[in-house]
What we know:
The protein has 306 residues and is of the alpha/beta class. The chain has helices at 8-31, 53-78, 138-147, 157-160, 164-172, 192-210, 226-234, 281-294; strands at 115-116, 125-132, 152-155, 176-179, 240-241, 245-247, 252-254, 266-270, 298-299.
Amino acid sequence: MQLVRQNVKYARRRNNRVHAAVAVLAASAIASGCASAGDSANPAHGQQPLNAPPARALDSYAQKLGAIQAARAAAAKRWGLAKTPLAAPPPPRTKPRITTRKGFDVKGQSSLPPVFTTIPTKKKVVFLTIDDGAEKDPALLRMMGELHLPYTAFLSDYLVKEDYGYFKKMQDRGVTLNNHTLHHRYLPGLSYEGQRREICGMQDVITKHYGKRPELFRPPYGNYNRDTLRAAKSCGVKAVPLWASEAFADHMEWREWDRDLHPGDIILTHFRGREDWKGTMPDMVRKVMKTVTDKGYAVARLEDYL
């Protein structure tokens, strides 16, 4: 993909946004107690040393964030992104209260895991989630790591078992691995016990291979009934994130009437390659990031808001 040359005016606007983001994030870090008496930072040429601990911490944190964003900008060019992904704001100190979306509830919903497509927030962030595990492209791991882009995986064992090690590498890079059932069955067509075997069985697989029992579950095709949520709860599931839009290698599909992103939206995509769609996993990332960045959004870590 040919790189897009940025003119001077756009570059200045981008730098201003980066500097503003750095200032906001750094101030947040200081307020949350990131500063300590042992922090130190070397002043730039011609500047006086920063003697006050909060000032030194602010300068050090700003330098660190600036370096991360500079690395992200370089990676964006390497991977053919038209623009550098925006930096996500700090996670909320108090996590939002998650409730089931209207019209997505079942009988007795108040005692069951919430089902939702969007996280309640006013911040211009969205959340990228990837389902199933069919395509195991090493380029995806490199690309997401170099771009510092968070995402959450929902895995099905009948696909993952071909290469558990691929997803261990993903987990080692900070990705949370969650439940998408053992065999990707249409759950409402199964009995309660059948659904429980699919969900609890995948809980056991992830615990065995990755050392942590998932708290998030996504039903195949987004289809569920009351038994699904009852079974999920009995298996230790705390929440059921669905999605507000879906990303492909060549286009986006929308759940909402206005065909647009909104603060807190969850984006769905899949582990797919050229055999299944018109492009590769990196092509999908380029497509979704163009949409997200052009609209002024950053990709944040879903678990930070749950």
